[in-house]
Design brief:
Layout lengths: L12 E7 L4 H14 L5 E5 L8 H7 L2 H8 L5 H18 L5 E6 L2 E3 L7 H10 L6 E3 L8 E8 L2 E7 L9 E5 H9 L8 H4 L12 E5 L3 E3 L20 H6 L11 H35 L1
Parallel strand pairs: 1-2, 1-3, 5-9
Antiparallel strand pairs: 3-8, 4-10, 5-8, 6-7, 7-9
Length: 293
């Protein structure tokens, strides 16, 4: 644990915010937020890729559709592909920049009110603690019981947490230069939704550390009820009883065809269990090494 004793230069960070060309109002709101809340940290707009405009042929060339179905038990959605490619585009922008750290931000994510006045100190401290993380989620929705390290800002305790299960929500996260090229190189073909993909940090290198910051300092702005980045505008169908039991939030999702659901559900559980056990392995190795030191 360190305490803030110096400030990182503003050019250590750069914010890459993802915004669709059609979402003019969200872009204006995001620019206002960045100028107001982020105290001069440079930023760049990354024009999002609108999934609805992607052809089926293009998607079949960049997505391993069968493996995606096995991992998720879902049909691939154009909006999911567009979201994935938009983040990949942001990573490439960061890779081409001179910044040490990138804050990847979707345009409907905001900093929670209690942390606004301390956000510059929080980011400076995260930069000072750069050996504790390579990918740091700050918009996830889960608290872990595994704390790897911590720091204080004005008597508030912030935890770097490790996880033995996947974290969902990629609205806001920080990555460093040591991991970004590996994330880019492993991204195609697409096999998973974006927020699950960068949870598989072991594919980016033996010593890569994926962490979540707690308390969670960002949130999805409910002013924007749904993200057009993920929208497919497809008609939803009625679900079977099995699907309603299996899928949470089922009223909001388009499900995998019934006839294949029964075969893909066990495969999904096997693959997700493999991912979670891999989390356990790598985090235990890191924790043991830390204790030995």
């Amino acid at each position: 644990m360190n305490t803030v004793n110096k400030s990182e230069k503003k050019d250590s960070y750069k914010i890459f915010y993802i915004n669709l060309a059609m979402d003019v109002k969200k872009n204006e709101d995001t620019l206002h937020m960045l100028q107001r809340d982020f105290n001069g940290i440079p930023y760049k707009r990354v024009e999002a890729i609108y999934g609805k405009d992607l052809s089926s042929e293009y998607i079949s060339n960049i997505v391993d559709i069968d493996l995606y179905k096995k991992h998720t038990a879902y049909e691939i959605k154009k909006g999911t592909v567009g979201c994935y490619l938009s983040h990949l585009k942001a990573w490439k922008e960061f890779s081409d920049s001179d910044s040490k750290f990138a804050i990847i931000l979707e345009d409907d994510t905001r900093i929670k009110e209690p942390y606004l006045k301390d956000i510059s100190k929080i980011l400076s401290q995260i930069a000072l603690e750069k050996d504790k993380w390579d990918i740091l989620s700050i918009s996830h929705k889960k608290k872990s019981n595994i704390t790897m390290d911590y720091f204080f800002i004005n008597d508030k305790k912030f935890l770097f947490q490790a996880y033995f299960q996947t974290l969902h929500n990629a609205g806001m996260y920080i990555i460093n230069r040591s991991v970004v090229s590996k994330m880019i190189n492993n991204a195609i073909p697409m096999e998973l939704p974006l927020d699950v993909y960068f949870n598989k940090y072991w594919e980016f290198g033996e010593h890569i550390k994926f962490r979540g910051l707690f308390p969670i300092i960002s949130f999805h702005n409910e002013q924007y009820i749904s993200s057009r980045l993920l929208a497919d505008y497809e008609k939803k169908r009625e679900l079977s009883k099995l699907e309603k039991i299996y899928f949470r939030n089922s009223e909001n999702k388009i499900k995998f065809p019934r006839k294949k659901l029964y075969s893909y559900i066990p495969i999904k559980f096997i693959l997700r269990s493999k991912i979670n056990f891999t989390y356990l392995y790598f985090n235990l190795i890191y924790f043991v090494k830390k204790l030995i030191k």
